[in-house]
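Hey, why these numbers?
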Amino acid sequence: MTDLWNYRPDLKSTDVDVVGFDVEATDGHIGAIDEASDALDDAYLVVDTGFWIFGKKRVIPARAVKQINVGDEKVFLDMTKDQVKGAPDHHADWGHPDHRDAMAGYYVPFIL
């Protein structure tokens, strides 16, 4: 399941700082990146969804990223807005193995 927490092989321009970039699902805008990591086997985005999901943040595995447009400062996901909305909430201890496994259980069916 480490593939979930790594960018796709064709997206190797990940050394760009994407914090602050807008995030687009396949069916529209979902928020902006609040935090990001491109570490091997631990790459993710924390997306602040703003008012759209009542101020919630979502941790999005790097594998869900299908395109990074540096010029427009946008990240495009291979997920719908409903899939993002249904994802587990971000919280302080999300990196704990139990929480990471729960997140993987949610994302694997439609990302990998």
User: Anything to note?
Assistant: Strands lie at 22-25, 28-39, 42-48, 57-61, 65-69, 74-77.
